Amino acid sequence: MDQIEPSAQPTDAGDATPRLCSRLSVPVADREGFLRHFLEHLDEDVEPAVGPDSETRLVIYDCDTRLSFSGETLRVVVEGTEAGRHGVAKGVVAYYVQHILGEACPPLVWAGDGADTRELAHFREMRVVSSQQLSPHMRRVRLAGRDLARFATGGLHVRLLFPPKGRAPVWPHAGPAALPVWPEGEDELVTRVYTIRRIDAPAGHVDIDVVLHDPPGAGCRWSREAQPGELVGMLGPGGGDAGQADDYLFLGDETALPAIARILEEMPANARGQAFIEVGGPAEEQALRHPEGIALRWLHRDGAPAGTTTLLEDAARTAVSPGSPPPFVWAGCEFEAFKAIRRFCRKDLGLRKTQHLVVAYWRRGARQDDDASADDEA
């Protein structure tokens, strides 16, 4: 799947921007089972009264999405105001319909706005501008492209597409289900998910910070070898942003450092909370701009391998005073730390989905490559 995480923010009903509308019809024999599984994937906080005999309404990538049944036919309507997010929302629905129905799923074809185009409105062709070393294990690549305003909001992450060396890139296009159709064979693309560390849409460039590993993965090699003028594709944005709250708790290792750094830079001056960032040692620390009310603390592994400590879980437990209102918790880290922090948020603090965002960015023992997120449009 090439989406990241659905946005929780609804489209402003008073917006005069022309609305885009698409429709999908699919035969579904087990209505109750389908709806249960669909909502488990996309909206765990949905009201329990929602059922197959009433209209189910939720927001996916700022698009009003409505599901209803007529007999054994599922009818989906997706409405939005921005072509990129509208296309992604359609793709999210199609992906999960295919996933739930499996072999019983017929070919999916959307009708309405966007049905007659192969263009992926959330895709951009980008050109490498420069590459520089930030710390022993972090490298920054600047990319330039056109019409980047949509990448400044709606999520922190993008998916970069690396074409084969020595070949002119063949980029994906939209299929009838609104899902990307990918080039194959000699034109197959390598993809990785990253955080946009900084974006200047008017100037037409984004900065991507890449964590360096040994042995290097595809993203590491790209960041080290990228030459000015080389082309890459970019899909997004999506996932990873922090909600609005009175108090925040940020937790992350170096793979989440670019995301935490960008969130802190863009927060209002009166924001309050704490941020804990785990790195190998002092040489990996970066000078980060952040509100005065956000206390920033670096946690050093001091020789321990990445993904083997409980530094972030321990910080989470000591940061929240018993009986005090819980903060909004944002965390990105290794899989075991992710499980521990998510358990703490849900079981100990009793946080709902809208009150925390905890993501596994990587898994020890699996291929380690860059700051790719496990749950992460792009």
From TrEMBL:
InterPro entries: FAD-bd_FR_type, FNR_nucleotide-bd, Riboflavin_synthase-like_b-brl, SIP_FAD-bd, SIP_fam, SIP_rossman_dom
The FAD-binding FR-type domain, residue ranges: 121-244
Molecular functions per Gene Ontology: oxidoreductase activity
Family of the protein in this entry: Belongs to the SIP oxidoreductase family.
Protein's recorded name: Siderophore-interacting protein
